[in-house]
Structures are given as structure tokens and as C-alpha cells.
Amino acid sequence: MYVSLEPCAHWGKTPPCANLIVIKGMKRVVCGCIDPFAKVKGRGVQTLRNAGIEVTVGVLEKECLELNKAFITVNTLKRPYIILKWAQTANGCMGLLQQSRPQPISISTPTTRRLVHKLRADVGTILVGAGTWKADHPQLNVRAWYGPDPERILISAHATQAPEGFWLAHSTMRW
Ligand SMILES: Nc1c(N[C@@H]2O[C@H](COP(=O)(O)O)[C@@H](O)[C@H]2O)[nH]c(=O)[nH]c1=O
């Protein structure tokens, strides 16, 4: 059996995966990386070895840590995995506005736009600042790809009401 992340050894929403692997009679398990989450951290591998299963750890470790980065961030740092995303021209401009045509200009190509919407479908939440909301009234849903729309949050120091379909988060930070 090949797994990117160490099978868990604790009861969470589901029973321990390592126990099931033992019950199913696997002979050999190749595990990409150890789960750094304190409740697992080598215990999954130990459960398998105690049951006589041959376990190899650390195959393509860097790639497996990368693959599991969102899960690992949530469980070790106790915060969401955050992606900063913006569209920018080759000469470093963003949010271009033409005086004669005061509306957002597309920097993304049809292909990169699809990638943007794929990213939206892959994340749980998308957060936008009050300035962007004021300028663009973005929809921030998934239209050019397939999958669920993310939850949408407007972060603002002054707004008292969220736009329809958005959550409101208050920002107290200034820079
Ligand atoms: N112009 C531009 C972007 N503009 C940003 O995209 C958001 C609009 O989302 P929606 O209303 O769902 O289409 C909004 O926040 C706007 O500032 N984004 C990009 O990936 N590429 C682009 O070229």
C-alpha cells in the first residue's frame, strides 16, 4: 500500500486508519511523510510495525509534505492554510483602470482565468478587502471550472453589514 501521509493512529471524526490497515492484512506500506500532527507523529507507523507490517517512510517526502500542506498547516499551526492570489501585468501593475472606461480590465487569459476558478473550487473560503469590494463588487464564485463555490468573506474596518452572500469580518489593523 502506498500513502502520501502517515496513516492516523487516533480517533477523530473517523477511527484510526492504521488499525484498519492492520485488519485488512496489508503486508507492506510505503509512506511518503510522517504526520507532524502531535496526536499521530510516528504512532501510525508504530501501530503498523507492531503488527508486523513492513513500513518504508520518506519516499518523495518533500513532494508529499507539499501535497499535504493544507492539512498539515491546520493541524500543526492551528490556523487555515492561506493562499495570497492576485493578477498582475508583466510590468508589475494590477487593478488597471482606464479613465475613459472605468471598469476592471482583464489581466488573466482565458486559461489562467480557468485556473483561478479551479483554485476557488479547491479552497473553503475566499476573503476580499473592502477596497476591492467597493471597486469591483466581485462575485468570487466558481464559473469557469467545476466544483463548489467557496464561502466569501468581506474584511472591512467600517462596514456594518455584509453584502448578500458574504460574511463580514472586522479588520482593526492599519498600515
Ligand atoms: N482583473 C482581474 C481580476 N480581478 C479581480 O477578480 C475579482 C472578480 O471576480 P469575479 O467577479 O468572480 O469575476 C475581483 O476581485 C477583481 O479585483 N482577477 C484576475 O484573476 N484576473 C484579472 O485579470
UniProtKB/TrEMBL annotation:
The UniProt record lists the keyword Protein biosynthesis: no
Alphabetized GO MF terms: 5-amino-6-(5-phosphoribosylamino)uracil reductase activity; diaminohydroxyphosphoribosylaminopyrimidine deaminase activity
Domain CMP/dCMP-type deaminase per the UniProt entry, residue ranges: 1-56
Keyword field: NADP, Oxidoreductase
GO biological process, one term: riboflavin biosynthetic process
Matches recorded under InterPro entries: CMP_dCMP_dom, Cytidine_deaminase-like, DHFR-like_dom_sf, RibDG_C, Riboflavin_Biosynth_HTPR
Pathway as given in its UniProt record: Cofactor biosynthesis; riboflavin biosynthesis; 5-amino-6-(D-ribitylamino)uracil from GTP: step 2/4
Chain ranges passing through the membrane: none
Keyword Ion transport found: no
Enzyme Commission number(s) from the entry: 3.5.4.26
Record function comment: Converts 2,5-diamino-6-(ribosylamino)-4(3h)-pyrimidinone 5'-phosphate into 5-amino-6-(ribosylamino)-2,4(1h,3h)-pyrimidinedione 5'-phosphate.
Family affiliation: In the C-terminal section; belongs to the HTP reductase family. In the N-terminal section; belongs to the cytidine and deoxycytidylate deaminase family.
Name under which the protein is recorded: Riboflavin biosynthesis protein RibD
Organism the protein comes from: Prevotella lacticifex
